[in-house]
């Protein structure tokens, strides 16, 4: 199947002349900057933030490229993955005309962003074992379907999606297939970033908010063909990643050995938490997880949720989400946090 990026783009985006910032126009070295109407005297902070940041974050991308094994030219950095999701809608989906497919239960921002952009959402629920319903997706497609969103490992279920099923979509769907890998660091499954050369319609999302522990900095990653990345850069605000975030991320990326240790410890704690939860008679099912959380089906989930809140322990009630009836989503914490959680769960059920 041939993939035609230009045919997918909205007309206004295809013809868009992007804003050209002062830093975009200037190439090379300089010592006097009188081009962007900045405050030449500095900023009232220990570090000077009076100059606009690199609009394309070259230093951060260069360092990320070595870690991720993806060329910088195939990389977009956004204000969280949510910015990349929003740009996908603005690039490819004409409001009130086009549609996208999501596969519940899944990450909620795909639908929220669709609603913000006035784009129809078609829902094809995952199968009972939380895998893609390929026949259902095929039935939902039409000539106005532009994007299919897949979260793997999936949120809120934690399991990885069968990669062969994702490849089937990539090979047979003429639109964009988005594989959201926010939790890939906790999974044994190979990242789809390695498949970018094979599939021109593939967009892979990742984040530094989870395993890297940088949620407060709001840095999301999108990997795709050079042509799709050029579309992202055409649409994004001129300086979408601030200098403070860029500086801190550059520092953090030097400490990947610490992150690797945290990943190992999280996986160990995840398995210990699952073992302890499975020993409770009130726990009906725990979905095998490749993420830093577990989806647990248990008795009286709302009552347990409220009891935990009263003890200052916050989990996520997913009991009203499709296919997650009776479930809480529990993030894997530190050993002490997990022990406190388990003690409160046991106390709740004993008191009933």
UniProtKB/TrEMBL annotation:
Q: Which InterPro entries match?
A: Aminotrans_II_pyridoxalP_BS (IPR001917), Aminotransferase_I/II_large (IPR004839), HisP_aminotrans (IPR005861), PyrdxlP-dep_Trfase (IPR015424), PyrdxlP-dep_Trfase_major (IPR015421), PyrdxlP-dep_Trfase_small (IPR015422)
Query: What highest taxon heads this organism's lineage?
Result: Bacteria
Does the keyword section mention Nucleotide-binding? no
Keywords, ordered alphabetically: Amino-acid biosynthesis, Aminotransferase, Histidine biosynthesis, Pyridoxal phosphate, Transferase
State which Enzyme Commission number(s) the record gives: 2.6.1.9
Could you tell me what reaction this enzyme catalyses?
Answer: L-histidinol phosphate + 2-oxoglutarate = 3-(imidazol-4-yl)-2-oxopropyl phosphate + L-glutamate
Q: Write out the pathway annotation from the protein's UniProt entry.
A: Amino-acid biosynthesis; L-histidine biosynthesis; L-histidine from 5-phospho-alpha-D-ribose 1-diphosphate: step 7/9; Lipid metabolism
**Xref: CDD domains:** AAT_like
Instruction: Give the EC class as a word.
Output: transferase
Signal peptide segment = none
Cofactor or coenzyme needed: pyridoxal 5'-phosphate
Q: Which residues carry this modification: N6-(pyridoxal phosphate)lysine?
A: 210
User: Which residue intervals define the domain Aminotransferase class I/classII large in the entry?
Assistant: 47-345
Among Pfam families, the record links this protein to:
Aminotran_1_2 (PF00155)
Subunit structure as annotated in this protein's UniProt entry? Homodimer.
Q: Which family does the record assign? A: Belongs to the class-II pyridoxal-phosphate-dependent aminotransferase family. Histidinol-phosphate aminotransferase subfamily.
- Kindly provide the name given to this protein in its UniProt entry: Histidinol-phosphate aminotransferase
Q: Gene symbol?
A: hisC
């Amino acid at each position: 199947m041939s993939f035609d990026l230009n045919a997918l783009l909205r007309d206004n985006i295809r013809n868009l002349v992007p804003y050209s910032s002062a830093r975009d126009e200037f190439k090379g070295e300089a010592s006097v900057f009188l081009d962007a109407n900045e405050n030449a005297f500095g900023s009232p902070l220990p570090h000077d933030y009076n100059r606009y940041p690199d609009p394309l974050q070259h230093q951060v991308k260069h360092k990320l490229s070595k870690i991720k094994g993806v060329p910088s030219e195939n990389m977009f950095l956004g204000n969280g993955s949510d910015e990349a999701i929003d740009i996908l809608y603005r690039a490819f989906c004409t409001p009130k005309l086009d549609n996208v497919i999501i596969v519940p239960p899944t990450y909620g921002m795909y639908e929220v962003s669709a609603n913000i952009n006035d784009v129809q959402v078609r829902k094809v629920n995952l199968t009972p074992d939380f895998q893609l319903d390929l026949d259902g997706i095929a039935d939902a497609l039409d000539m106005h379907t532009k994007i299919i969103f897949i979260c793997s490992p999936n949120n809120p279920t934690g399991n990885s999606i069968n990669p062969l099923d994702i490849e089937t979509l990539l090979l047979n769907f003429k639109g964009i297939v988005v594989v959201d890998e926010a939790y890939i660091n906790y999974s044994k499954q190979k990242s789809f970033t390695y498949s970018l050369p094979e599939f021109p319609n593939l967009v892979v999302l990742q984040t530094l908010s989870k395993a890297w522990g940088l949620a407060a900095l709001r840095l999301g990653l999108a990997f795709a063909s050079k042509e799709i990345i050029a579309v992202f850069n055409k649409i994004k605000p001129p300086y979408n990643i601030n200098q403070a975030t860029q500086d801190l991320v550059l520092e953090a990326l030097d400490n990947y050995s610490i992150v690797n240790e945290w990943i190992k410890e999280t996986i160990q704690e995840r398995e210990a938490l699952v073992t302890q939860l499975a020993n409770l008679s009130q726990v009906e099912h725990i979905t095998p997880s490749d993420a830093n959380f577990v989806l647990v089906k248990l008795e009286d989930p709302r009552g347990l949720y409220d009891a935990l809140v009263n003890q200052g322990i916050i989990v996520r009630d997913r009991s009203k989400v499709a296919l997650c009836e009776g479930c809480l989503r529990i993030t894997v914490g530190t050993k002490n946090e997990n022990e406190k959680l388990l003690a409160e769960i046991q106390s709740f059920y004993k008191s009933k």
